[in-house]
Amino acid sequence: MASTGTDKPDPEAATKSEVPHPPPKGIDYFAVDVGLRVLLFAATLTAVVVMSTAKQTEPVFVPGAPVRVPIAAKFNHSPAFIYFVAALSVACLYSIITALASLGVIAKPIYATKFLLHYAFWDVLILGIVAAATGAAGGVAYIGLKGNSHTRWTKVCNVYDEFCRHVGSSIAIALFASVLLVLLIMLSVFSLHSRIRE
Amino acid sequence: MASTGTDKPDPEAATKSEVPHPPPKGIDYFAVDVGLRVLLFAATLTAVVVMSTAKQTEPVFVPGAPVRVPIAAKFNHSPAFIYFVAALSVACLYSIITALASLGVIAKPIYATKFLLHYAFWDVLILGIVAAATGAAGGVAYIGLKGNSHTRWTKVCNVYDEFCRHVGSSIAIALFASVLLVLLIMLSVFSLHSRIRE
C-alpha cells in the first residue's frame, strides 16, 4: 500500500515466490462445515421421523353420533404438515450430498472456492424452504394448541396431546435446522471473505 | 506466481504501485444491490399495508343468536398474521437502512468488501424471518381458504372474500420479498467471490 518505488524488491512478492504451488488462500472451515452438515442431517431426519410418526387415536364426540367415536390424528391431515415433511426431507437429502461433497473438498481442496460459492447459493434456497415450512407448520400447530375464537377453530391439543407433542418437537427441531443452515451460510460467506487479500 | 528471483522488480507490485489508492478489486454490483433493496422496500411496505388494511365486516350466524350478527375479520385476530406484519415491518426498516448504506458504498467504495460480508450475514437472518412469516401466514390462510375437515376448522374465505384477497395478496408479495432477499444474498456472495484472485 505505502510502497513508493517499483525497483525495490517487494516483501510480499518474496513471500509469494517461496511457495511453488500456492496453497488455497484464506482459512478453511470445511471440517466445521462437515460437522454442521452432519448435524443438519441428524436434525432434519429427526424432524421428519418425529412428524411422520405423529399419530394418535382418541375417542371424540362427533356431531350426530350418540357415543364417542375413535378418530385418528395424523400429520397428513394438514397440508402444512405434509409440506413440512416434504421440505425437511429435501433438506435431509441435501445435507447428505453436501456433507459428502465437503469431505471431498477436504481431501482435494483445489475447488474449495467454487464449492463455497455453490454452497452459499444452495444453502440459501434450502434455508428459505425450511424456514417457510417451519413457519407454516408452526402457524397451524399454534391454532391446534390455542384454537382461534374469532374463526371458531377449536383447539385439538387438549385431546390429541401426544400428537401435539410430536408436532411441537418436530417444529422445534426444524427451527434448530434453520439455525444450522444460517450458520452454514455465514460460514461459507466468511470463508469466501477470508480468501480476499486486500 | 512464476517469478524465480526476489531481486527482480515484480510486475504485480509495479502494477499495484502505479495506483496510489488501489480501487476495489472484483466487480461491483452495488447499483444492482440498491435497486433490489429499493424493490424489497416497496414489496415489504406493500405487504405490510395490504395485510394491515385487511378488514371486513360481514353478518354471520352465531350459535345461540337468532339473527345474523355483523362480525369483523381483522388481521390481528390471528397470531400468525401479527407475526407476519411484525416480520415484514422489520424487513422494511432493514431494507431502508441497507439501501442507504449501499448508496454510501457507491459513493465511497473503500469498505465495499466489509459491507458485502455484513450484508450477506444480515440478509440471511432477515430471509429466515421473512420466509418463516410467509410460511406461517400462508399455512393459516390456507386453512381459512379450504378449512380442515379432520379438525372441523371451517373455511372463512367464502364469507370474508375481500379479507382473504387482502391476505392472499400480502402473502404473495411477501413471497416475492423472500425471492428478492435470496437474490440479494446471492449477489453479495457472488460479489465477494469475484474479489478473490486465484
Automatic annotation (TrEMBL), chains A, B:
Subcellular localization: Cell membrane
Organism for this UniProt entry: Hevea brasiliensis (Para rubber tree)
Record's keyword annotation contains Transcription regulation: no
Pfam families: CASP_dom
Domain annotation Casparian strip membrane protein: ranges: 32-180
Region of interest called Disordered, as start-end residue ranges on this chain: 1-21
Oligomer and partners: Homodimer and heterodimers.
Membrane topology summary: Multi-pass membrane protein
NCBIfam families documented for this protein: A_tha_TIGR01569
Name used for this protein in its record: CASP-like protein
Stated family: Belongs to the Casparian strip membrane proteins (CASP) family.
